[in-house]
Amino acid sequence: MHNKVMAVFVLLVSSGQAIALDCGDKTNSCKIETGEYHIVIPDDWQGGPAVMHLHGYGGTGEKIVGNTAFVEEFTKRGYAFIAPTALPWLDGKPTDWSVRDGWNTYPRSDVRFLREVLADAALHAGVNVGRVLLTGFSRGGSMAWEVACNAPDLALGYAPASGGFWLPATEDCLKPVHLLHTHGFADKVVPLEGRAIHSEEFDVTITQADIWQGLSMWRQENKCPPNAAHHEMTEGLWRKRWNCEYGSLEIILHDGGHGYPKGWSSIALDWFESLEN
């Protein structure tokens, strides 16, 4: 599959013609065996890097690409923007990602699904699978942490926001990664210290893990010293970066709640592009 994808990509680029897609716009999703996704490509696109963004609980890829201003922050920098859609976690329930949290009703392996989305986007849109930034917000941010841990080769870099591991606590991942995590200091939906959520309907409790505990695990995985090497506090942002033997690790805290800080997309892309320099 990889050789076939690359052959198509080389053919498209060498032709000098922009790539046109017949699916993926705001209303017409691209459908594959395991699900569907939306994709927006830059003007005169001839193939290149991509941002894959995972929506929050109850969301869809269609809603994400409907936020034109958000998407254009990436496409104007030359990135294809891919927005996969999660499945309902149970018939009649909202969409959700298959995050490891002790709840076992998820209908598919989302790691497999995301791999197949990238393969399809590479084949039909010339996405360079070696230059992918995986982002996600809230529950989508948690899924980004899961992918980084259990399928670290899926993306070159991971930039989740407002979501991390859930309990049972993750103690070991497959290998180091490049991770930039963003979180609101006043987030009450996904507090930095975590929280328990109880379902009266199913009489079950699932628990968001402590973000700091998750970062501690990543410091061990990336072989980072306990203390951050770089601190920066500017315009409502507090950044900590560790100098690690493998991969990289950074956290950005902002003075808001469950959301992004102003300029987040540019910050994430600047960080991602620094990985290739």
UniProtKB/TrEMBL annotation:
Protein's name in the database: Polyhydroxybutyrate depolymerase
Cleaved signal peptide residues: 1-20
Entries under Pfam families matching the protein: Abhydrolase_2 (PF02230)
Domain Phospholipase/carboxylesterase/thioesterase: 118-196
Keyword terms of this UniProt record: Hydrolase, Signal
Protein source organism: Ruegeria conchae
Recorded GO MF terms: hydrolase activity
